[in-house]
Write a structure and sequence with these properties.
4 helices
Length: 106
């Protein structure tokens, strides 16, 4: 993570954070995405994509905290290099993704 993984992780977390938006009463939504089934493109709140984004944002937050606590000098250098702000980390932590599941019936 110190060499280049954290930088890539943080930059891709920024993509998810930028793509989404909050909907009152629902939470953080990702609209107009294509999930693993490329035949149903441009759907809102695809469960696979939203869960992946949620896990990604949480992992980015956790790695930032780990770097901050154990490798402070490296973290500070990276933070300056990519202009990472503490408020971004807070947003990654608080994202409550909309995850819609449909149950299958026989």
């Amino acid at each position: 993570m110190l060499n280049c993984g954290a930088e890539m992780l943080f930059e891709t977390a920024r993509i998810f954070a930028d793509l989404g938006h909050y909907v009152e009463g629902k939470g953080f939504c990702l609209d107009g995405v294509t999930g693993p089934d490329e035949y149903t493109a441009m759907v809102n709140n695809n469960a696979y994509t939203n869960i992946m984004a949620k896990e990604h944002l949480q992992f980015a937050y956790d790695i930032a905290q780990m770097l901050k606590n154990k490798y402070r000098e490296n973290y500070d250098e990276l933070k300056q290099k990519i202009n990472l702000e503490d408020k971004e980390l807070d947003e990654w932590k608080k994202h409550q993704m909309v995850c819609i599941f449909h149950t299958m019936t026989n």
